[in-house]
Amino acid sequence: MAENLRPQWPADLIEKAAVVRLLALDVDGIMTDGTLLFSASGDEMKGFNILDGLGIKQVMAAGIEVAVITGRRSPLTEKRMNDLGIPHLMQGREDKKVALRELVGQLNITPHQIAYMGDDLPDLPAIRYAGLGITVPNGYWLVRQHADFCTTAAGGSGAVREACELLLCACGQLNASLQPYLEQD
């Protein structure tokens, strides 16, 4: 059998993650690599990582709400979030902390029950407001300094999947989410 590659997280991080009921995500730099691509005709293009999409679906199946909060407006973001079934899409939101406060009221949760994942200065107030702040290794240094957890994968390269697996492990649902893929005929 191959070596055990399953991620291990510190106990204090698992403890913070165990109470999370909402995973809120930035888009550019988290769900994408942060590159803005435009065709010659001016059409925007984005690349979303399929690993992240499955992780998001697994987290939602485990009963954790998912929201996407982005400062930009993009029909591509709207399409991808609709494809994933993400119920809370907040585009054109420069103040992400205010958006989180709105979700706290709508979902009847506390800031302590939020995991927020972002990579740049507009995300910093939301990271500091949330009970669990998550970032990526290619995020801005000050954001990394204030986050509780920094993924090993870069934004747009499976980082959201890592965050989802942390949350699934913390709520005791990681094994159940993986079991269908381990079953044999």
UniProtKB/TrEMBL annotation:
Its cofactor is Mg(2+). It catalyses: 3-deoxy-alpha-D-manno-2-octulosonate-8-phosphate + H2O = 3-deoxy-alpha-D-manno-oct-2-ulosonate + phosphate. Keywords: Hydrolase, Lipopolysaccharide biosynthesis, Magnesium, Metal-binding. Its EC number is 3.1.3.45. It comes from the Bacteria. It holds the Pfam family Hydrolase_3. CDD domains: HAD_KDO-like (cd01630). GO terms for molecular function: hydrolase activity. Signal peptide: none annotated. Catalyzes the hydrolysis of 3-deoxy-D-manno-octulosonate 8-phosphate (KDO 8-P) to 3-deoxy-D-manno-octulosonate (KDO) and inorganic phosphate. NCBIfam families: KdsC-phosphatas. Belongs to the KdsC family. PANTHER family: HAD SUPERFAMILY MEMBERS CMAS AND KDSC, N-ACYLNEURAMINATE CYTIDYLYLTRANSFERASE. Homotetramer. This is 3-deoxy-D-manno-octulosonate 8-phosphate phosphatase KdsC.
